Amino acid sequence: MSSENVKHIVLILSGKGGVGKSSITTQLALSLTLAGHSVGILDIDLTGPSIPRLLGLESAKITQAPGGWVPVEVHPSQVLPRTHSQQQPHASQNGISNGNGAESVNGANTLLTITGTQSDTQKKIGSLYAISLAFLLPSRSSAVVWRGPKKTAMVRQFLTDVLWPPLDYLLIDTPPGTSDEHISLAETLLTKTLPHQLSGAVIVTTPQAVAVSDVKKEINFCRKVGIEVLGVVENMSGFVCECCGERANLFGKGGGEVMSGDFGVRFLGGVPVDMAWGSLVEEGRRPLYGEVKNNGDDEEEDGDGERRCEREDVARDEGLLVDKYRSCALCGVFEGITRQLVDIVEGRGSEDG
């Protein structure tokens, strides 16, 4: 790795699979670029790499250059065009964590306030790059059947042989657990990086007790190997219906915040489930809230007696992912989380020297 080109390295960790580490990593990266920072994503989930799919870059390939690999450019630094104001979801009226562990309705960190601001202003954004084993595989369905030593060697190669351009932040998306990849990652970063490069780790959990129990092990792992825990993000923290705006806590609520208090680490915020984010990364559709119509027959009903509704058909938007993300309700949530993360990382850096 071109160590002198990377200012801050942040690990995204969790002791449990399926909690949304890759989704959190992607949205943190997009939010950081919207704040003007240059960002890189390193995907070391070798057997289940999903960053290329989330970024819409499944057909991209890594370029080999003298001295190492050149990462894939997601987008360059640029000024995003002004976008039209869109009706926002009712999420802010149903209480979304404001990044400090509290819920607010009309505060500065609600979805409605933040997303509206971002949608109506021009944005000077930072560049975004990514590298993943998926870029080296013949197809996205190719299986990686490797033993521990080969995984360890691959992680070390990713950490030493990637020719990153100047980056403010390098986010490392990791597999679940505390296995060979994590040990290799910790050993390499703690012994071969410049002072203060490894800023620490963001821990991702979901509210359920079974997830929190596994994630506690990840915090203990960080403390054993000497990696600072920067904060905890509770993913899947409620679901907000796009049609009616009602919020349901499908997976419970507050487990991540309670765990943060038990371990004395910062709770960065809760992230609700947003179907528009899924449509954005799966279909490339710019999020559009609050526009629902009948399917054409007022009398036709489904088996449950509910009149079928469908969202307005929106043509696939070929614009940049980061531009379309500005219209997503979660953009506001991550602006608050990102602001806290930057304050922690850069605030500590200025104090240390």
Could you please describe the fold and organization of this structure?
This is Cytosolic Fe-S cluster assembly factor CFD1. Residues 81-102, 289-310 are annotated as: Disordered. Keywords: 4Fe-4S, ATP-binding, Cytoplasm, Iron, Iron-sulfur, Metal-binding, Nucleotide-binding. It is found in: Cytoplasm. It is a single chain. The protein has 353 residues and is an alpha/beta fold. α3 (111-119) packs across α10 (330-352). It has a single domain (3-352), classed as Rossmann fold (3-Layer(aba) Sandwich). The protein is globular, with a radius of gyration of 20 Å. It has ten helices and 17 strands. It has helices spanning 21-34, 51-54, 111-119, 148-160, 180-192, 209-225, 255-263, 275-283, 321-325, 330-352; strands spanning 6-13, 39-43, 63-65, 68-70, 72-75, 78-80, 96-97, 103-104, 123-125, 128-132, 167-173, 198-205, 229-240, 247-248, 267-273, 292-294, 309-311.
